[in-house]
Amino acid sequence: MELVIDRLSKQYGSKIAVDRISAKLGKGVYGLLGANGAGKTTLMRMICGILKPTSGSVSFDGIDSEEEDFRAILGYLPQDFGYYPDFNAYDFLFYLSSLKAIPKKEAKAKINELLEVVGLREVAKKKIKTYSGGMKQRLGIAQALLNDPKLLILDEPTAGLDPKERVRFRNLIEKLGKDCIVLLSTHIVSDIEHISDEVLIMKDGSFIFQGKWNDKESSLEDFYLSQFEEGEDSE
Amino acid sequence: MNRFERGIKESFSVPNPIKKEEFIKKFPKPEMSLSKFVISQIPYVSKVTWALTILMFISVFLAPRILGVKVTWFISGLTPLMALLAVSESSRSQKYNMAQLEASTRFSLRSLLLARMLLLGIVSFVLIIVSVPLGTFYGSFRVFETSLYVITPFLLSASIGLYIVRSIKGNNGFYMVSAISLFISLIMFMGDKYFGFLFLSVGVKYWLMLFMLLLVLTIVESKKLLNNTEDMTWSL
Predict the structure, then answer these.
(1) Domain count, chain B
(2) Are the CB atoms for B87 and B178 separated by under 8 Å?
(3) What gap in Å lies between CA B5 and CA B21, rounded to an integer?
(4) Same structural domain for residues A185 and A122?
């Protein structure tokens, strides 16, 4: 199981959002850190195959990100997502199951299991518009897991979760990371410190750190903050 | 279960499955054809769209009894509204910020848009197929002219609508499409009273030219919308 990112770039006019990023990711949890505008979301969208790169490629076990087979093994939680106004949690998950080509019977069992996991079983028949931000986020996590993904891309998954939910989520991700590749972006350094096997730090469209954070001298948070300070000094 | 089977069951306990999850994951994923996928999307077309479509069919069948020879104007005023329904259904993902999630699924946003366009396209086609004979029988025009007067406003509304939802994102685009479709519809409804000159037999060749042009434009705009799904996923 290997995700290969090969010299991936995205350019909008004169602005380079992602600059020739290369990486090989195996099973495990990868934490992607970076300030707003560092290129995290653009990178994740390109990995998911929903945004065409200017150059470079992404493949999973040799399957290109533009292929249907790639999307069949993908679970994606965008930073910001909506829902159709008449949907409840069941409708939402059944709808996405149909787009993921999961047969109805199998989908029903999986949906009940996931609603239990994310703690929404009791409110599954209520309209999503009545949900809190944290509940919507948990529903988003559930839809990403519908097809038992081998590659799970989570853009700011802990946003809107309360501390208790955050701990539950960390445990879930830790478990998932044993069987698949999980790439999650966040602003919260402690989320990554707790669950990530490897850390990827992005700045101005490039990785400035990639690997295990074993530095006993300084904390990941101090290093991360120092990158901001450097940016401010140079401006 | 016979006594031997019962005996075996009582003597040996069933071991817990080992690596059950991994084993199940190895099963090949079921294939789904595009036609099956299109059918699977019927319940997910907006209920309002289906309700309004049924209402249109009912009014097409009732119109000749109420309007008599003026039925052609009514039907030609109704088809731009059908086009409005089809176009707004195609832009739903963008309107409700679902495009990113849909784009990352196995069937992708492109297939989903194609499925929705096909479903509403088929329904519109059936409405037109039903309307033309009714309009010809009860109205004052021949089949060819009636067909042109019924289909051309549909294509005009569809081509402009598809262009707008592709160019103007969010609710603004939707409101603009609605306003234009209603305007076209209104002109056709009032065709008999104020725009009769448009429907004189001498103008048929211009209607035919307009029909051909709009048919091409509608096909081009549909293709552009299907090839433009990447833009639809940008919500920020």
Answers:
(1) 1
(2) no
(3) 28
(4) no
Residue A31 and residue A139 in one domain: no
Query: Hey, which residues does A33 pair with through a beta bridge?
Result: A186, A201
CA dihedral A155, A159, A162, A163 (to 10 degrees): 60
Q: How far is CA A12 from the centre of its chain?
A: 23
Sheet arrangement for strand A198-203: A74-77, A151-155, A181-186, A28-34, A198-203, A206-211
Most A-contacting residue of B21, B39, B96, B106 (CB-CB within 10 A), to test interface: B106
Would B12 be classed as within a structural domain?
no
| End position of a domain, from candidates A115, A148, A181 | A148
* Residue B32 with chain A: CB contacts under 8 Å: 101
* Residues A181, A94 within the same domain: no
Q: Which of A89, A60, A57 has its CA nearest to residue A72?
A: A60
Beta-strand ranges (E) seen in A35-165 are 55-60, 63-64, 74-77, 151-155
Q: Are residues A155 and A52 located together in one domain of the fold?
A: yes
Chain A neighbors of B105, CB-CB under 8 A: 71, 96, 99-100
Q: Are residues A153 and A225 in the same domain?
A: yes
pLDDT string in tens for chain B (236-residue length) = 788 888 888 888 877 777 776 676 666 666 777 788 889 899 999 999 999 999 999 999 998 888 887 888 899 999 999 999 999 888 888 888 899 999 999 988 888 998 999 999 999 999 999 999 998 888 888 899 899 999 999 999 999 999 998 888 777 888 899 999 999 999 888 877 777 666 666 678 888 999 999 999 999 999 998 887 766 665 44
* 3-state secondary structure (DSSP) of residue A77: strand
ipTM value: 0.88
Percentages helix, strand, coil for chain A (3-state, rounded to 5) are 40, 30, 35
6-25 of B, contacting A, C-beta below 8 A: 25
Q: Select the residue from B46, B100, B116 to test the A interface by mutation, using most A Cβ atoms within 10 A.
A: B100
Q: What is the span of the domain harbouring residue A202? A: 1-73+149-235
Residue from A213, A95, A144, A44 nearest B112 by CA: A95
Domain co-membership, A68 together with A121 = no
Total tally of structural domains belonging to chain A: 2
A109 & A136 share domain: yes
B26 domain residue, yes or no: no
Residue type at A102 in one-letter notation? I
